[in-house]
Amino acid sequence: MDLLSALAAGKRLFRRQTLEDADLREADLTEVVIKNSTFANCDFHMANMVGCRLEDCTFTNCRFSDADLSEGQFTRCIFYAPDKPCAFVRADLRHSKWEECDVRLCTFEKAQFLKVNWQQVNATGA
Asked: Is 80 exceeded by the pLDDT of residue 26?
């Protein structure tokens, strides 16, 4: 069962997923928990990720434009690879918590940052 089918069936916990070139635009990822997973070239444009919890995940060249990541928790996640950072253009990051993440060179143009908590985050060049 693919990720979108599993979400539609009500599954909210995912481990060891590998997605490449996935179209997750406008996907409902509300309060989803994703651990130890890898995403490459995935499109999360306008995805609803309110209250999501991501742990030990790697995102390469993914697009989170206009996505709602508010109240999310991101722990030990990497959103960077040389020449392939992620884009969070106009993303809603309000009240989210980021711990030990790497967002080097990511684009946060016009993103909403009200009460974002970053602890040990590498944001060099972002």
From this structure: yes
